[in-house]
Amino acid sequence: MTGSIKFYNPTKGFGFIKTDAGAELFFHITNVVEGTTAEQLQEGVTVTFEEGMGREGPQAERVTVAGGAMSSDSFDEDAA
Q: What is the pTM of this model?
């Protein structure tokens, strides 16, 4: 699934993702894929994730920044 970071608190290690379908899912830093840094989890950043079930209901798991750390802009420039 894909969505975007709606909110992330790096001090507390949790946030919320707004899914492309409009739902909001909780996520914790322990559910972020290794290699994705807290600094990348800025509001509005597109992420991919799997929906799972946590102690208090649905949550996002295996969260990673869509497209990795590289910007797609560099590919557009090379193609021109």
A: 0.79
